[in-house]
Fold:
Amino acid sequence: MEEVKNFRQHHSMTPGHPEFPNSEHNTPGIEATTGPLGQGVVNAAGAAAAQKMEQAMFNTKDYTLFDSVTVALCGDGCLQEGVSAEGAAFAAHEGLDNLIIIYDSNDVTLDKMAEYTQSEDTAKRYEAYGWEVVTIDGHDINAVKSTLDKFRSSKNGKPKLLVCKTIIGKGIDEVAGTNAAHGEAGVKYVAESKKRLGLTEPWQVSQDTYKHFESVQKRNDAKYNAWKDTYNAWKSANADKAALLEKLQKKETPSAEEMFKAIPEISKGKNIATREAGSIVINHISDLVPQFLSGSADLHGSNKNYIKNGGNFGKGFDKTYAGKNFYFGIREHGMGAIMNGIAFHGLFRPSGATFLVFVDYMRATIRVAALAELPTTYILTHDSIGVGEDGPTHQPVETVSSLRVFPNLDVIRPADPEETVGAYVHSQQRKDGPTAIILTRQNVKTLDEIPVETRRQGVLKGAYVAKKESGDLKMIIMASGSEVQHAMAAAEQLGDGVRVVSMPCMNLFNKQSKEYRDSILPPSCLKRVAMEAGVGSMWYQYVGLDGKVVSVERFGFSAPGDIVMSELGMTAENLLKECKAYM
Structure:
């Protein structure tokens, strides 16, 4: 009760909105970070998908280890958010009949009554998606319980929506049934209303309530003890499954060294796109990390993130609930929220893919993942103006920088196949936040002149010396991704005093010790140039105000990728010219 009284106070266990246990808050029982409307109902679809997967992986004909359902509570505002439609369509299509949404339908939003901004029949809309929908009086507790009991036992292939018609502010006659009860307008009537209800203290909880929940706890203890007996019998009969489940529960992954050792050199002597390298690496990752899942917003063929022996998740066609490849459809926002729900569930490590330029559709979900410290991975391909013919609508220029400003998001833009290995390995080492892996559409030079181990390990530290000066250090050229090859070529023409630094991840580099950072970017060398095929403002933290950033500060245009790159200065020749002018 003391923590309840500390509601919204600094370091309390009761922040303004529920927060999944993390380094800032650790409130037992909080299953998801909620607050942004619409996210929770789609997180619930992700959790339900994870439950289907655990059932498919671990239940046997003799033992039902898992049979849980996901229940989420929402209001009118949650279902107005477009992401809820994406999640609802996915849940129905994939037959998530273990998903129950309780819709507190009081016809109210904050500014106005809901009728002011909506006129659709929400129940019919959900029926059209393929949900089972039941509408009841939300104040009839017996009706609520009996309907939920039926929903929990129903295996009809349909998610469930319980529409509870309620009166907001019921009992406070002055605001009951109006949007005034949603905000501060009803506060002045609270004290008098509490008196009418017989409440005499601000934080009063009746003894009947305490007694009721004591009996609930006793019943739950009995159920849990019975489940433990089932678990022990299952474990004795299924040693391999039990060992895997224990590994997933402990969130174990191989060490970076173990993963590097198991993944062979990717593309020696051959230049390939980093998305192509990713298609090879991701299959090694899946073998090494059995809880790793992949998915795409209708772009598996382009993102090249398909797990070849993973099977496909869902209902019908060639799908099963044990499949590791998720087909999210053209629903980037929904994909991000479903991924978060899978991560909140806790057994699996989801990844999802789309073109980098479309990541803005899912920014709200990435923010929640970073805030809640979820180990999600975003595979974002077609990373720059190098996309070419599709034109400026598909050529991201501002996007990488806009992702780098997220706290606790590791944005990795690898330069070649071996850096791509490092990026994937790092993403599966993280236990405290998400990773975005930024990959090229076009081929890039494989940097065989740099040892494989240097490239891989360098990613884990965010930046490393790709080419060391052979004389007195006079200039440092920094780059990431497809521009590292240009930095290496230009440095060859600039003399023995030029160092090249590959910086695939600014966030990781900034976390290194001062000694390491100074060894890569010696403070004594102030002649610094950075190159990246995108907006360059983030690079000034390294080159300084007197440094030079060769970047793209405009939208691109439709033409073959190499022509767009050349016209906008993303070539070794232009970098050489800029460096000479700067020196």
User: Anything to note?
Assistant: The two ends are 66 Å apart (CA to CA). The longest helix spans residues 207-237. The longest strand covers residues 99-105.
